[in-house]
Design a protein that fits this description.
single chain; mainly beta; 6-stranded antiparallel sheet; 6-stranded mixed sheet; 14 strands; binds flavin-adenine dinucleotide; binds FE2/S2 (inorganic) cluster
């Protein structure tokens, strides 16, 4: 069940250009891999959606790409700071798979350390813009890594149950190759629980709230 709680920061580490923000877990349920939490950056009106990256004992950890004011404020949090967390929210990945394969692009690597732990370390292919960004591959030991201009879709082994997260063009390319893939999409989200309709996307020809129906959707949807 989702809960809203103020939690303390237990640590913050640089992983290439990203920040791994660790929070005390308290009574929060880590949920299913691929679900997300709304984190409230200090001084900002709206919370920001973040996938759970890792769930070590007593903690919840989030990998943050500081692309704007909210994510920069979250990345600047220090040990002992308090932050309001709400979740877990949305629909995560189905994990009842015969031959799982993780496919991540850029900050799309974020949900996969937790996915990998739950699946016992399946194969993974990760793509990054630069070697600096690819430092985040250390969160998924054993993953195959490609750098631009090589795309992850050029490195996909055949006949796997793909779980993918990354930029929209990457997800569209994965969808074209693997119609049974599960894809984690993004949309701007203000509430995260179906109230504001800020995250509406077209699914199966109908307008739906990604925070409720997703963020993980079947590629064929
Ligand atoms: C379900 C879900 C899970 C996410 N998980 C992570 C995660 O684990 N780590 C992470 O770093 N980020 C994640 N994101 C993206 C993150 O929420 C946004 O980058 C963040 O909200 C941007 O806030 P900001 O104030 O820093 O940037 P803003 O100043 O709000 O935006 C900066 C730029 O990014 C664009 N933008 C903002 N949010 C989105 C979005 N959701 N989709 C597309 N474009 C956007 C804006 O239009 C603007 O151009 C996730 C998003 C969703 C929906
Ligand atoms: S974020 Fe408010 S309805 Fe989806």
């Amino acid at each position: 069940m989702p809960r809203r709680e103020a939690r303390s920061v237990t640590g913050s580490e640089q992983v290439g250009p990203y920040t791994l923000l660790r929070l005390e877990r308290g009574g929060l349920d880590p949920g299913v891999p691929g679900q997300f939490f709304m984190l409230s950056p200090p001084g900002r009106l709206l919370p920001r959606p973040m996938s759970l990256c890792l769930a070590p004992r007593g903690e919840l950890a989030f990998l943050i790409d500081p692309i704007g004011s909210g994510t920069r404020a979250l990345a600047a949090l220090a040990t002992g700071d308090r932050v309001t967390v709400f979740g877990p929210l949305g629909k995560g990945f189905r994990l009842d798979l015969e031959r799982p394969l993780i496919v991540g692009g850029g900050i799309g690597v974020a949900p996969f350390p937790y996915v990998s732990e739950q699946l016992g370390g399946p194969p993974a292919v990760l793509g990054f813009r630069t070697a600096h960004h690819a430092e985040a591959a250390a969160l998924l030991p054993g993953a195959d890594v490609v750098l631009d201009p090589t795309y992850v879709t050029e490195a996909l082994p055949a006949r796997h149950d793909v779980l993918a997260c990354g930029p929209e063009p990457m997800l569209e390319a994965v969808r074209a190759l693997e119609p049974t893939a599960q894809l984690a999409w993004e949309a701007p989200m203000a509430c995260g629980y179906g109230a504001c309709y800020g995250c509406v996307v077209e699914i199966d020809g109908a307008l739906r709230r990604l925070c409720v129906e997703g963020p993980v959707l079947e590629a064929a949807a």
